[in-house]
Structure formats: C-alpha cells, structure tokens
Amino acid sequence: MKNRLKVLRAERNWTQADLALALDVSRQTINAIETGKFDPSLPLAFKAARVFQLRIEDIFDDEEGA
Amino acid sequence: MKNRLKVLRAERNWTQADLALALDVSRQTINAIETGKFDPSLPLAFKAARVFQLRIEDIFDDEEGA
DNA sequence: ACACAAAGTCAAGTAAGCTTTACTTTGTGT
DNA sequence: ACACAAAGTAAAGCTTACTTGACTTTGTGT
Predict the structure, then answer these.
(1) Residues 35-54 of A with CB under 8 A from B
(2) Dihedral through CA A51, CA A29, CA A61, CA A3, nearest 10?
C-alpha cells in the first residue's frame, strides 16, 4: 500500500514527529508507514484524512496486491 | 466504527458468507465487523469499497471516538 | 413440529499494527 | 570537521485483526 504522507508533510513543512503528534501515534509508526513496513489501521487512516482534509483514497493507494 | 455492510449486503441479497467470499476473509470476520467487535484493516476496507463501488467513507463511519 | 439456512458467538491460535527504548544514518548549517 | 535535527532501523512486548472449528440462536418455509 503506497501513500502520499511524505509529500503531504513536505507541503506543510512537517517532520515525521509533527505528523505523529497530530495523529496521536509514535514517530516510528509514521516512519514505518511511510517506508512501507506496514499499513495503517483504518481508524488511523481516517485520522490522517481528517488532518489533511482529504479522502482516504487520496492519501493511500491500494494498488490491488493479492 | 460503524459501517453499512449489512445494508449493502441486503441490497444485493448477499449473506455474510457471500460477502466473506467476495472480500476473501472468513465469515466470522464479516460478522465481527458488522457486529462491531473490531474494525477492518485498511486493505480490507479498500476491498469492500471496490466490491461495493463506493468510497471507504461511504461504507465506514469513523464517528470520532478518542 | 421439524428442517434448514443464516447469523451470532466462543476459544485458541497466528499475524499485523503499534509502543517504548535505543541506536545508526543522512542531510544541513556553521 | 563538528554539531544538530530528521530520518531510518531494530528488538521486545502488547493489542487488535483475522483464522479455523465448533457450537447456539434466530428466522423462514413446509
């Protein structure tokens, strides 16, 4: 699952730590998601959508894998 | 996290087992999600959105709980 | 009343998301 | 070259998503 978190952060000049704070998760969690270690939970995806004022589908890309 | 799976199934006359098959999860997983035992993963939410041709936000409702 | 399909539920196990702590790497400014 | 901030990574532990198997409950048709 790809995502645009890095870009969205860059647009706002946010660090991974800043985003972690906004989403109420650890910095490592943001890093792991950005680097593709695992997918966020659905609740976390909703939070991200709220923070960036975008739809989940506009942040995360399913790319139909298995 | 609330969801409209039961209604969407009803519209199509699908059983929980039918939906489970379509989403490639167990029947118990569908039941647990419908009855609020736990939230689906993001990939599963994407699959549901694809199957029903809706946006994730139109199927699942975050309802801002902590 | 009986049979059957669908839904609900429980237990035990595996896998994935997330935490904390701690360390290394990369990039930038001075 | 040095210092510092940001990013990356890793291990161990906890929680949540999901599995299989088995059983109970509910609803419908006959």
Answers:
(1) 39-46, 49-50
(2) 70
